[in-house]
Write a structure and sequence with these properties.
Blueprint (H helix, E strand, L loop, with lengths): L1 E8 L15 H16 L4 H6 L6 E8 L8 E11 L3 E10 L2 E11 L10 H4 L1 H12 L1
Antiparallel strand pairs: 1-3, 2-5, 3-4, 4-5
């Protein structure tokens, strides 16, 4: 399992009148963590798009444990949990000074420009091999 960590700070615009981070922002933070993890693996999303591949979210969950507040420094811990021929699954933890604030998961299909599922190994053997190598290392 490959893991990455992204540090973010809760911006004022991400909070409600009480200074608490709005619940939907956690999905945005998951995306930030996922994008950075893929970039660190040498597999930026842009490269998938250049190969006419896209990774739309087909399932997302988030379990909230404690609130994030304005100006908190958060760590988004992202793991590439599962790799399948036509799907990727990531898990996430959002922490503030070690305290778990939320945990979640996103599942992504591998699709072409027309939105049709493709087998990554067949469509782009190079990307598939690099992704497998990254997961194994």
């Amino acid at each position: 399992m490959v893991q990455g960590e992204t540090v973010i700070r809760v911006r004022y615009q991400e909070t409600d009148q009480m200074g608490v981070a709005y619940h939907a922002n956690y999905l945005v933070w998951f995306e930030l963590g996922r994008t950075e993890l893929m970039r660190r693996l040498g597999l930026p999303y842009l490269e998938f798009e250049e190969n006419d591949l896209f990774l739309p979210v087909i399932k997302a969950t988030c379990e909230y444990k404690a609130p994030a507040r304005y100006d908190d420094e958060l760590r988004v811990i992202t793991r590439l949990e599962k790799l399948h021929a036509v799907r990727l699954t990531f898990t996430y933890e959002v922490r503030r000074q070690g305290t778990l604030l939320a945990r979640g998961c996103t599942e992504h299909a591998v699709v072409n420009k027309k939105g049709r599922p493709v087998v990554l190994k067949k469509w782009s053997p190079s990307l598939w091999e690099r992704l497998c190598n990254a997961v194994e290392s």
